[in-house]
Specification:
- A hairpin with a 2-residue loop joins strand 1 and strand 2.
- It contains 5 helices and 8 strands, in the order E-E-E-H-H-E-E-H-E-H-E-H-E.
- Helix 3 packs parallel to helix 4 and helix 4 crosses helix 5.
- By secondary structure, it is α/β, with parallel strands linked by helices.
- The N and C termini lie close together (8 Å).
- The protein has a single domain, classed as Leucine Aminopeptidase, subunit E, domain 1.
- The structure holds ligand AR6.
- Ligand AR6 binds next to helix 1.
Length: 185
């Protein structure tokens, strides 16, 4: 599924984030930036040991923030390490922090001249964020950013399984009904 915001596109695909050919891929990292399981483990394995050597010099990353490194053996030139929140039901901070992790990732991309970015579904694995709550936040924050920053031309959400893809497709269909800036392909 694909929509447009002015000249930019948001794309949803099922797949593996480590195989993307966007200029940057986003990692669902933790505050240490020293690696972990899930997406983080897969990205470190695919990029090779030089990635950890670089991320261990970055001084960690606060929840809701993002930092950039090289991509090493990946097709992507850069990895943007974003730290989403651990989900806590009925805590309004988690939505704010999940939105911030997406916005900061896109700001960091912009600061480094990156115009195409692939995201995983941040916080929806080990960190327990329900997909149907995370998807509208991820997509809404991205659509708002693209509206104001035409330098970013493509944001691709790479969903690992059919369930995640379906949740993002439903949220993107809702967004294209409610946000006049979001136009179907
Ligand atoms: N490509 C795309 N999506 C994937 C892949 C992949 N290769 N592998 C898993 N997913 P998670 P989090 C999906 O747990 O919840 C790490 O240990 C997965 O199905 O990777 O933000 C870090 O170091 C899920 O929908 O990230 C942190 O400690 C989504 O990616 C912690 O996990 C995110 O799952 C971060 O937890």
């Amino acid at each position: 599924m694909r929509v447009h915001i002015n000249q930019a596109a948001i794309e949803l695909v099922q797949g593996d984030i480590t195989e993307q050919d966007t200029q940057a891929i986003v990692n669902a990292a933790n505050t240490t930036l020293l690696g972990g399981g899930g997406v983080d483990g897969a990205i470190h394995r695919a990029a090779g040991p030089r990635l950890l050597r670089e991320t261990s010099t970055l001084g960690g990353c606060a929840t809701g923030d993002a930092k950039i490194s090289g991509g090493y053996r990946l097709k992507a030139d850069h990895v943007i390490h974003a730290v989403g929140p651990v989900y806590r039901k009925d805590d309004p901070d988690v939505a704010r922090l999940l939105a911030s992790a997406h916005r900061r990732s896109l700001e960091v991309a912009l600061e480094h001249g990156v115009s195409t970015v692939a995201f995983p579904a941040i916080s929806t694995g080990v960190y327990g964020y329900p997909l149907h709550e995370a998807a509208p936040i991820a997509l809404g924050t991205t659509a708002d950013f693209l509206r104001d920053h035409p330098q970013i031309t493509l944001v691709r959400f790479v969903l690992f399984d059919q369930r995640a893809l379906a949740a993002f497709e439903a949220a993107l269909a809702d967004l294209s009904r409610s946000d006049p800036n979001v136009q179907p392909d």
